[in-house]
Amino acid sequence: MANIVAIVGRPNVGKSTLFNRLVEERKAIEDNLSGVTRDRHYGHAQWSGKFFSVIDTGGYVTGSDDVFEKEIRKQVKLAIEEASVILFVVDCHDGLTGLDKEFANELRGTDKPIFIAANKADNMEKMLMANEFYALGMGVEQIYPITATSGSGIGDLLDQVVSCFSEEGEEDPDAGIPKIAILGRPNVGKSSFLNALLGNERSIVTDEAGTTRDAIHTRYKLYNKDFILTDTAGIRKKAKVKEDIEFYSVMRSLRTLEDSDVVIVMVDATRGLESQDVNLISLAIKNNKGLMIMVNKWDLIEKDHKTMQAFKDDMMEKLGENKWIPIIFTSALTKQRIFQAMELAMAVYENKNKKIATSKLNDKILPEIEKYPPPAYKGKYIKIKYITQLPTKNPVFAFFCNLPQYIKAPYTRYLENRMRENFDFQGVPIKLVYKKK
Ligand code: GDP
Ligand code: GDP
């Protein structure tokens, strides 16, 4: 079993403060000032060379209309099902409360290791209060006084927590799983798309009890394939003013883009490709991301058999040289082609990771070069001898030749086109480099 720590406890004891302290902060969004908050309740942490995941179970169940009792049960159930170690947080300021006892009762059923963290042990007096929690009767050898706000006491606690893990854990348990980001202007239909997609065959691996609307980084399974969807939907709902909305959707887009393998740029069919969309697309290309365009709200377009092609042609013209970007026409409302859209994103991911054998490359491309060799430069003949794909994360091809410096952009375009004709690199930026041989 993976190393997972679940934090449980009644509201306001400091669970989310502790969570934020434990998980890598770099991914958290700190934009509370604007009122745009997207709490994360699942993250990765590390202590003493062991990697583990942390779930703030409280984050998943508060804010509902549920009565406390039900809430407690839900938190504890989530923790027991998902975690290998349970961190039960109580509060030295308030001391032992009835709700704490109810948590203890619910937790008693499990054989998973439980640690009691007595939070807000800000000073000596409060630290002594921690002893009061032995009365919970959980059979723990020790209560750990901590201060989540300053971090004091957390090291001792973690030493014990990680000693329960038999394995080192994975640095990033999501490594190797496609990360797909859905970007686009507010109102193009990102949330609707997600809901349409996941409402059907839905299986969330890590976010079981979570509200999908709030998950910014959620692992899903569709047709037996794992993937991680990051979306920027939902931000709008919490932003206060319009300027914030635009600003934060751009900011989030940038971060999400950096953290993904494939970017789906969602465009509103009724508006066509707008300048922001084009900016996003160039940014994705610059960052070597897999890329596709999803023209949503296709149901709103009055169309005949020529409309789609006309739309495509128009977009292609705006995309200039980047005609390798696939375009799909969808409706999140009627669910038209929404699963094909995900399949296309997965295909783009495959293309991005494609490795082509040197022999195959040379068999296909050398004849194309012979047919149309690089133009001589200042009377010097340029001879490309062979081609090989470099072992890089994104497709890069090295063309070995006598005079690499004399090959110009138009010839590179010729080569790229031949490469794309012979091998499927739909949706993926490819790079050609020339090396001296
Ligand atoms: P949650 O509802 O259990 O997730 O609790 P929060 O993490 O939201 O914390 C509730 C309040 O307690 C916030 O105002 C925190 O700043 C405060 N708090 C959290 N940890 C500490 C601590 O170690 N000492 C003190 N004095 N306050 C804390
Ligand atoms: P987001 O801001 O990108 O997440 O956009 P939403 O998913 O919240 O959608 C914005 C509005 O567009 C909502 O009123 C949706 O019902 C509507 N909408 C989304 N997708 C479609 C679609 O494919 N067709 C139509 N006609 N409306 C849609």
Automatic annotation (TrEMBL):
Keywords carried by this UniProt record: GTP-binding, Hydrolase, Nucleotide-binding, Repeat, Ribosome biogenesis
Pfam family, one: MMR_HSR1
GO terms, molecular function: hydrolase activity
SUPFAM superfamilies per UniProt: P-loop containing nucleoside triphosphate hydrolases
Annotated positions binding GTP 1: 9-16, 56-60, 119-122
UniProt domain EngA-type G: residue ranges: 3-169, 178-353
Binding site residues for GTP 2: 184-191, 231-235, 296-299
Quaternary structure and partners: Associates with the 50S ribosomal subunit.
Protein's job: GTPase that plays an essential role in the late steps of ribosome biogenesis.
Family: Belongs to the TRAFAC class TrmE-Era-EngA-EngB-Septin-like GTPase superfamily. EngA (Der) GTPase family.
NCBIfam families linked: GTPase_EngA, small_GTP
Protein name as annotated: GTPase Der
Organism: Negadavirga shengliensis
Gene coding for it: der
